């Protein structure tokens, strides 16, 4: 482990800290928030409970939206830096298979990237540190520190293997803790049960399919196609370029699940591939792991009493496709920018007015798209509809391209072509979540 990312050891004296902003969690949302805030000149402390590198359940694929977020942060995304590029998706559905390239748009890159999350998170943490953020690993935040008015004024934590008590005082706190959202819960911000919560399981396998120009996604998870056990969901095979592939299955709305074994669904789907492709459990190089996918801005408001929520803490995963990394980095940026603007304002009503605009910013950016995504999940829960739509829709390139733009939230809006304008109009008509 690089010394720059060293966690506190038993011989270290863990002192209490003071900062402008404390960020809890060093995933894409936390490191993104830290980078943007530190870049604005703020003194930022990041607290991460794990030590890096660490495993994180993920498909490892970044859509063009995620690529844009990395580029906006000045992250080197070249193949020379270890990134694997893909030109589009290979979609399996209704007995059809079609390769579709990412759209060529003015706002977004026309390629996707793959990098293991264990590497991605460490790189982003280093990037935030290079911008001036102070990172502390092996620190478990236990509760918010409240002032006399009940406002969040920092956090309490346990640091290092000896679990030494630690206090970080800050003018603002950003929660990038993920699905657990311990700090948010302590303020009464609980997850809304009427919003979808997905689940993903994945493993790495050593396979000849490690190198591919396309990322595979499949709605046909049985030889007969979509089934009630696998809906609403899809499987994926993402070549990592290093002799392995990330293979997994995502159920996008557990409220509509039948109670079936998701790991079994993955196993049965992979059994439909020829053995020569080596995608089954016998070729695994890691255990099968699972994680939740919090969607549709499920914890609101995303700001309360000095606490900003970013990434999975706010439930920003896209209901259309389960994509979370892009939105984690984007909301990290919004949180970092909001913190900088707020702390530049006079303490009191002026500062609070800036902070109160943060939830509205998230809603304006994602609310209508997520509402459409929730409707899409309702349709996707009917296998016969999915079977019909994919069998006929995948034969029509115009429909496939439009669906890819809508599901991936990748358009030029009203400034784009006819497809973009139709998607923009459809999105404007939907109420925000």
Can you tag this structure with a few keywords?
433 residues, alpha/beta, eight-stranded mixed beta sheet, seven-stranded mixed beta sheet, 31% helix, globular
Concise overview:
It is built from ten helices and 18 strands.
Polypeptide structure, described:
The chain is an alpha/beta fold and 433 residues long. It has helices at residues 28-39, 64-72, 117-130, 182-186, 262-270, 325-344, 349-380, 383-393, 397-408, 418-429, and strands at 17-24, 44-48, 61-62, 84-86, 88-93, 96-101, 112-114, 134-137, 139-146, 152-159, 164-175, 197-206, 214-218, 233-239, 244-251, 289-294, 303-304, 307-309. Strands 1, 2, 8, 9, 10, 11, 17 and 18 form an eight-stranded mixed sheet that branches. The protein has a seven-stranded mixed sheet with strand order 6-5-13-14-15-12-16, with helices on both faces. Strands 3-7-4 form a three-stranded antiparallel sheet. Helix 1 (28-39) packs parallel to helix 6 (325-344) and helix 2 (64-72) runs parallel beside helix 6. Residues 1-13 have low confidence and may be disordered.
